[in-house]
């Protein structure tokens, strides 16, 4: 195993531990006190805590042990090793912070901010190629033996937990749980995509040289040229694709409006940019 690969693996485990800590804190600070069973093993432990007073950390450990065994069989050793770390640390943080009290009594705030913190934690764990165990493994089993998609499998499993919570608590809290699940899913996507304030600029022009000069000399960015044809005029044009930072986009817009107002320009939000000048340093030739 090379040094770079070892460093990458260590960083994965660090992300899993940090993400698991966020997941545990989201449960103890927001979800459990407000009786929000937002799916998964955490939702099951919330229901059992309300019914029988069982310690949530112990319940989660006990449920996840057989699921880890199934994970070793179905998923593979490397992923399962990371799953074991996540599965251990989430209940550990829950146990460690069980006496932490923030006194948030509003279930709406708990569902929103609990969902945000939970999504941040799970997103970090997933970026480390890990898992916190739980019903994600049950969903994988359903997928394997029924052929339905992973997302729909997860929806079925979480749905059963939320419906159960409606009978144990009340229908209103079940709706808050659904809201929390939705918020969590959106935040996970945000964290995994590493959304940044960058813009993809599409410029369709007949004055390629002027646009090239503006991009290279004024904002010092690279670009890609694509030959295109106007749909109405059938004239040959050039479509230029360029990715810029938010501040550069504002400056570029002003330059184009002044120097080349006839060009057709589109600014789009870019979720994640990989490559020289963004995720890697620019190389000057």
Could you name the key traits of this structure?
elongated; 285 residues; 10 helices; 4-stranded antiparallel beta sheet; alpha+beta
Question: What does this protein look like?
Answer:
- Helix content is 64%, strand content 11%.
- The chain is α+β, with helices and mostly antiparallel strands and 285 residues long.
- A four-stranded antiparallel beta sheet has the order 2-3-1-4.
- α2 packs antiparallel against α3 (56-74) and α5 packs parallel to α8.
- The longest helix has 29 residues, at 3-31.
- The mean pLDDT is 83.
Low-confidence stretches are none
Largest sheet: 4 strands, antiparallel
Sheet/helix structural class = alpha+beta
Q: How many helices does DSSP assign?
A: 10
In total, the number of strands is 4
* Amino- and carboxy-terminal Cα gap: 33 Å
Mean of residue pLDDT? 83
Largest beta sheet: strand ordering: 2-3-1-4
Order of helices and strands: HHHHHHHHEHEEHE
In percent terms, what proportion of residues is strand? 5-15%
Shape label: elongated
Rg: 25 Å
Approximately how much helix is present in the residues? 55-70%
Structure at a glance:
This protein is of the alpha+beta class and 285 residues long.
SSE blueprint and pairings:
Elements: H1 3-31, H2 40-52, H3 56-74, H4 77-96, H5 107-127, H6 135-146, H7 150-168, H8 171-193, E1 198-205, H9 208-218, E2 224-229, E3 236-245, H10 246-259, E4 264-270
Antiparallel strand pairs: 1-3, 1-4, 2-3
Helix pairs in contact: 1-4, 1-5, 2-3, 2-7, 3-4, 3-6, 5-8, 6-7, 7-8, 9-10
């Amino acid at each position: 195993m090379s040094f770079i690969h070892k460093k990458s693996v260590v960083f994965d485990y660090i992300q899993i531990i940090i993400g698991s800590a966020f997941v545990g804190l989201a449960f103890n600070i927001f979800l459990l006190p407000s009786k929000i069973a937002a799916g998964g093993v955490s939702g099951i432990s919330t229901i059992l805590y309300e019914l029988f007073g069982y310690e949530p950390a112990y319940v989660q450990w006990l449920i996840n042990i057989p699921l880890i065994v199934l994970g070793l069989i179905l998923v593979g050793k490397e992923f399962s090793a990371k799953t074991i770390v996540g599965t251990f640390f989430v209940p550990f943080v829950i146990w460690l912070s069980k006496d932490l009290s923030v006194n948030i009594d509003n279930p709406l705030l708990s569902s929103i901010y609990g969902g945000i913190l939970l999504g941040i934690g799970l997103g970090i764990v997933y970026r480390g190629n890990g898992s916190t165990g739980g019903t994600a493994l049950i969903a994988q089993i359903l997928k394997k033996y029924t052929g339905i998609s992973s997302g729909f499998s997860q929806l079925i499993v979480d749905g059963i937990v939320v419906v159960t919570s409606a009978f144990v608590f009340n229908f209103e809290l079940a709706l808050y749980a659904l809201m929390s699940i939705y918020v969590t899913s959106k935040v996970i996507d945000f964290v995994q995509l590493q959304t940044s304030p960058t813009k993809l600029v599409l410029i369709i022009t007949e004055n390629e040289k002027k646009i090239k000069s503006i991009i290279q000399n004024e904002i010092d960015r690279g670009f890609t040229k694509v030959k295109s044809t106007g749909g109405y005029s059938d004239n040959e044009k050039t479509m230029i694709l360029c990715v810029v930072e938010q501040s550069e986009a504002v400056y570029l817009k002003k330059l184009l409006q002044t120097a080349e107002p006839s060009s057709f320009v589109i600014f789009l939000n870019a979720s994640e940019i990989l490559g020289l000048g963004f995720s890697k340093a620019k190389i000057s030739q």
